[in-house]
Design goal:
The protein has 204 residues and is of the alpha/beta class. 39% of the residues lie in helices and 18% in strands. Helix 1 crosses helix 6. The protein binds flavin mononucleotide.
Length: 204
Amino acid sequence: MTTQKQTAPTEPALRVLAVAGSLNSDSVTRVVVREAARRLATLGCTVDLLDLLQEPLPLYNPDTSHDAPAYALLQGRVERADVVLLGTPDYHGSISSAMKNFLDHFWREFAGKLFATIVASHEKGLTVTEHLRTVARQCYAWTLPYGVSFVGEEDLKDGKVSGAELAGRLEMMTRDIAIYGRLLAAQRRADLASTEPGFLARLR
Ligand SMILES: Cc1cc2nc3c(=O)[nH]c(=O)nc-3n(C[C@H](O)[C@H](O)[C@H](O)COP(=O)(O)O)c2cc1C
C-alpha cells in the first residue's frame, strides 16, 4: 500500500516504511500499524506498508539471503525509507520471529534513520519495546524516546482502534514521526553528502 498527500514542492515527502510483524491473519498489530500509516499519510508522509503475512520473508541466511531474487527489491524499499515504523506482537516478552527475521536482513539501510515502535501486549510490552530499541541502537538507528503499546481486546473493536488513549498515543507518535523524522532525514542526507566526521561517515 502506498499513500501520499500533497506537500510543498520544495520539501520531499517523508518516506515511512511501516512493518506489520504478526503472521496472524486476524492480527491486532496489523490494525494499529495500518491506522498509524493512515494518520501519517494525512500528515503528508509517503507510507510503504510491509505486511510480513502478505509478503513472507524466508528465514535469514547470511550465505544465501542477499542473493535471493526478492532481496534487492526489499532492500530498495528499506533504503528509500526515512523512517521505519515497526509493529510487533509481544511473544514471550520479546518481538515476533517474523519481525526479528525482517530486522536481521539489514543494518546499513537502517543507520541514521528514525525507528518508531508499536507493540501488542497484555503487559505493556516494555521488554518488547526495549528489544526493538536495542536492535535500533545496534544498527545505528535513532528511536523515538517512547513506544506505543496496546491491548487488542481493550483498545480495538470490530477491527478498528476504539480506545481514546490509544488514539491519542497514535496521534502523538505520528506527529512526532513527521516532525523528528524530517529533521533526522535532512541531517542524514547532509551528513552523507559532507566530508565531516560522524557516525554516518562510514556509509559514504
Ligand atoms: C507465542 C506467543 C507468545 C506470547 N507471549 C506473550 C507474552 O509474553 N506477553 C503477553 O502479554 N502476550 C503474549 N502473547 C499474546 C500476544 O502478544 C497478543 O495476543 C497480541 O495481541 C497478538 O498480536 P497479533 O494479533 O497482532 O498477533 C503471546 C502470544 C503468542 C502466540
